[in-house]
From TrEMBL, chain A:
The keyword 4Fe-4S does not apply. The DELLA motif is required for its GA-induced degradation. Transmembrane segments: none annotated. Residues 15-80 form the Transcriptional factor DELLA N-terminal domain. This is DELLA protein. It comes from Trapa natans (Water chestnut). Belongs to the GRAS family. DELLA subfamily. One of its GO terms (biological process) is gibberellic acid mediated signaling pathway. The lineage of its organism: Eukaryota, Viridiplantae, Streptophyta, Embryophyta, Tracheophyta.
UniProtKB/TrEMBL annotation, chain B:
It holds the Pfam family Abhydrolase_3. This is Alpha/beta hydrolase fold-3 domain-containing protein. Residues 108-324 form the Alpha/beta hydrolase fold-3 domain. Its main location: nucleus. PROSITE patterns: LIPASE_GDXG_HIS, LIPASE_GDXG_SER. Belongs to the 'GDXG' lipolytic enzyme family. The active site is at residue 192. One of its GO terms (cellular component) is cytoplasm. It comes from the Eukaryota. One of its GO terms (molecular function) is gibberellin binding. InterPro entries: AB_hydrolase_3, AB_hydrolase_fold, Carboxylest/Gibb_receptor, Lipase_GDXG_HIS_AS, Lipase_GDXG_put_SER_AS.
Length: 518, 352
């Protein structure tokens, strides 16, 4: 070190330049990584070809942003397969996920016939050129004017000038008549104008009945790959987490029609060594008309499990909201491996103080789950400022609607899927306080929250990535993309991630305190 | 052979900072895993490993970005714009105005590198580089997400480049200059395969009468059947091998073709002279002194000169490939200064 040179960065700091390139490496770890890279280079040069090809095709990679763990795991894979040419996977340390790739054929996961629950998507015709009307391409005059007006209106609402905002709503409604509201910006704008109109007039949004919600959810499931991706990715992670366990218990935070579970049941049935005993606890709203919807769905799943020889027990927990769930209702026993599955539910707990999120995260942790699978919308719709929230939502839902149009779903799936999204938009724009439940937050925000609440990430691997990509080619149009984000996977439309899937487990207690500042 | 491999590693470690060495060695390792000897490519794993970043219309350090997707082709361009002091977020009203009504603002159409096979417009390394270009040059940048090999061979990348150029030229909101003189001031830039794409798109533009004000070829990817002196001397020494170069050409060029194909060797035995192609733009060609294909890059410069075209050579003796990814070396700053002067001819730049 000569005079005039800048002091070296603090040892625990991440290397800023590498961070700009997407890699998280501490300055103090650079030498370690460099050394490993050198060793890998030499090893690969001198290794027999089957070893190198194993690294390429069979090895499951995790969290490539974390260079230290990536190079370490590659080196251990290489060393292991060099010494054990017949064994295709390395034994893993207890802190990382298993490197076994899923021994289940993709077809098996979707081939379950179920007359009552026909969730197998028919082949989509991919021959039509996608009619892409991505929001940012709008350069038609009326489109730009409409967006301009929407922003101005939202700003007026934020300032409290509801009278003027109302006038603008009328103007925009008139503008709408001059453009195509069947698709593109016209359609999305229409929903936002409607939501603004409700907010300004004080009409608010009518809450959907649980029955309606379930129907809309089902059609959204059919019309787009988002929920399928969520289920698929979560199941993959749960399957890996359950390896070696004979008694497993899945707690589903929102059962709906149980669409996620046939695939997992089938996969467990086929696992080497035989299936475990599976318990499923499905949480859902109480049925108003005396029916016990939860139990009905439980029955169907039980029949399916029986048909594939998986010992299965179902329990329904009927509550209006997750905040009403008490751990004793779940009846978790000490010898079972628990998976907590939350698909687009956690954000509902982020309401105003006293916000139920901390108590819920706390009892989840108290269950000591093997895995918590979390899928959430990848956007911040929980900002306090109305204009910010509105703008964010406008971009986000424009992109989602574009992607739906390109997927060319059939009716009535398309119309009802649109309504599903419209409900969300309305809630975000019209509601405040406890009524506003669509409080989406980003992966970065969830990471922060979960790390602070005593959880640590379980990275989703390249096998899950690959299979998610395959899923997309089977079911969807060109333009969807799966991306890896520091151990999590996102599904998006053209380079914009729209939904993020991650997996977690409880940190050991002492680590939870020490990691609080990381 | 292990012995010479160690020498190679030590040599490259001596000439670049440690974090650069880690970055480029990491790419080298990953790319070795992705290329298969039968010429196929593990695209899934490549996409998984590639670090990507989303666009961001909220200005970060004076630059915002957004993605545009072509309706007909699905071609994605990422647009980077300079923001003014205090500007909070970019609104769509901006689509109705030119970049400036008083001065010329350069628009750089950027083609990322990756030997025609790797990376995307939304790869972190390229997103960062494009942002730096906006800041340094005061330019707008449009980064093209061209189709890659081996799935899409020649001429797909050039087609996509041409489509992107036409799109950029026709955007009213990318125009600048006084009202009488308002036009899109286009420059083409690219590194590695991106540099190669610049050349071919510029030729097409010149032939079609479409104005391109300048070409910036950064460590451009050219080659030929012959093994040049630099290739033999530097093979395997600074992250790159002749063997991997050969693989990428085999993956890009039409099947059965050799490296004297004019896409690879534009001034070679099967190439054609650009003499008389008056609309061909001035060029800035940057050659890292430790790049094994420098003889081909230098031959390209010679070829341009012989055809009577304006070309400036920036030869950076101690630079390795990828020196421009991290701003931790002198070459990076020299490069940025050169590009800034190249696209802002009205600036009073020091002659080097």
């Amino acid at each position: 070190m000569g005079p005039g040179k800048p002091p070296p960065p603090p040892r625990t700091e991440l290397d800023g330049f590498l961070a700009g390139a997407g890699y998280k490496v501490r300055s103090s770890d650079l030498h370690h990584v460099a050394q490993r890279l050198e060793r890998l280079e030499s090893a690969m040069v001198s290794s027999p070809s089957h070893v190198v090809s194993h690294l390429t095709s069979d090895t499951v990679h995790y969290n490539p942003a974390d260079l230290v763990s990536w190079v370490d795991s590659l080196l251990s894979e290489l060393t292991h397969s060099y010494h054990h040419p017949n064994n295709s996977s390395a034994p893993t340390s207890s802190t990382s996920s298993s490197s076994h790739s899923l021994p289940v054929d993709l077809d098996d996961l979707f081939a379950i016939p179920s007359a009552a629950n026909n969730w197998l998507q028919p082949e989509m015709p991919l021959s039509q050129p996608p009619q892409l009307t991505v929001f940012t391409t709008m350069e038609e005059d009326s489109g730009i004017r409409l967006v301009h007006a929407l922003m101005t209106c939202a700003e007026l609402v934020q300032r409290g000038d509801l009278h003027l905002a109302g006038t603008l709503v009328d103007e925009m409604t008139a503008l709408l008549t001059r453009i195509n509201t069947g698709c593109g910006i016209g359609k999305v704008a229409g929903y936002f104008i409607d939501a603004l109109s409700r907010r300004v007039s004080g009409a608010g949004s009518a809450p959907a009945s649980p029955h309606e919600t379930e129907i809309l959810y089902h059609h959204f499931y059919e019309a787009s790959p988002y929920l399928k991706f969520a289920h698929f990715t979560a199941n993959q992670a749960i399957l890996e987490a359950f390896e070696g366990h004979d008694c497993v218990h899945v707690i589903d935070f929102s059962l709906m029609h149980g669409l996620q579970w046939p695939a997992l049941i089938q996969a467990l049935a086929l696992r080497p060594g035989g299936p475990p005993i599976l318990r499923l606890t499905g949480i859902g709203p109480p049925s108003p008309d005396g029916r016990d919807t939860l139990r009905e769905i439980g029955h169907r799943l039980a029949e399916l499990a029986r048909s594939v020889n998986v010992r299965f027990a179902f329990r329904g927990v009927a509550v209006s909201g997750l905040e009403d769930v008490k751990p004793w209702m779940l009846q978790v026993s000490p010898n079972e491996a628990v998976a907590v599955n939350s698909i687009m539910q956690m954000h509902k707990l982020l309401g105003p103080d006293p916000s139920p999120i901390e108590p819920v995260l706390s009892w989840i942790r108290g269950l000591n789950p093997r895995i918590v699978t979390l899928v959430e919308q990848e956007v911040n719709h929980n900002q306090t400022g109305f204009l910010d929230r509105f703008t964010e939502a406008l971009y986000y839902y424009s992109t989602v609607f574009d992607s739906l149009e390109a997927a060319c779903p059939v009716q009535p799936d398309k119309a009802l899927a649109d309504m599903y999204l419209q409900r969300e938009i309305c809630n975000i724009v019209c509601c405040e306080g406890a009524a506003r439940i669509e409080r989406h937050e980003t992966l970065a925000q969830w990471r922060d929250r979960l790390n602070r609440s005593g959880f640590r990430p379980l990275p989703l691997g390249s096998n899950a990535f690959k299979q998610a990509s395959m899923l997309l080619t089977l079911f969807s149009a060109e333009g969807y993309s799966v991306e890896e984000n520091e151990g999590c996977l996102t599904l998006g439309w053209h380079s914009r991630p729209l939904i993020a899937a991650s997996a977690w487990q409880a940190s050991p207690l002492s680590a939870a305190i020490a990691d609080g500042d990381n | 052979m292990a012995g010479s491999n160690e020498v190679n590693i030590n040599e490259s470690k001596r000439v670049v900072p440690l974090n650069t060495w880690v970055l480029i060695s990491n790419f080298k390792l990953a790319y070795n895993l992705l290329r298969r000897s039968d010429g196929t490519f593990n695209r899934d794993l490549a996409e998984y490993l590639d670090r990507k970043v989303p666009a961001n219309t909220i200005p970060a350090d004076g630059v915002l970005s957004f993605d545009h997707v072509d309706r007909a082709t699905g071609l994605l361009n990422r647009v980077y714009l300079r923001t003014t002091e205090g500007q909070l977020a970019w609104g769509f009203e901006e689509l109705e105005k030119p970049l400036s009504t008083t001065e010329a603002v350069p628009v750089i159409v950027f083609f990322h590198g990756g030997s025609f096979t790797h990376s995307s417009a939304n790869s972190a390394i390229y997103d960062t580089l494009c942002r730096r270009l906006v800041k340094t040059c005061g330019a707008a940048v449009v980064s093209v997400n061209y189709r890659r090999s081996p799935e899409h061979r020649y001429p797909c990348a050039y087609e996509d480049g041409w489509t992107a150029l036409k799109w950029v030229k026709s955007r009213t909101w990318l125009r600048s200059g006084t009202p009488n003189d308002s036009k899109v001031h286009v420059y083409l830039a690219g590194d590695s395969s991106g540099g190669n794409i610049c050349h071919h798109v510029a030729v097409r533009a010149a032939e079609a009468g479409v104005e391109v004000l300048g070409n910036i070829l950064l460590q451009p990817m050219f080659g030929g059947q012959e093994r040049t002196e630099s290739e033999k001397r530097l093979d395997g020494k600074y992250f790159v091998t002749i063997r991997d170069r050969d693989w990428y050409w085999r993956a890009y060029l039409p099947e059965g073709e050799d490296r004297d194909h004019p896409a690879c060797n534009p001034f070679g035995p099967r190439g054609c002279s650009l003499e008389g192609l008056i609309r061909f733009p001035k060029s800035l060609v940057v050659v890292p002194g430790l790049d094994l294909v420098q003889d081909w890059q230098l031959a390209y410069v010679e070829g341009l000169r012989k055809s009577g075209h304006d070309v400036k050579l920036l030869y950076l003796k101690e630079a390795t490939i990828g020196f421009y990814f991290l701003p931790n070396n002198d070459h990076f700053y020299i490069l940025m200064e050169e590009i800034k002067c190249f696209v802002n001819p009205n600036l009073n730049c020091q002659k080097r």
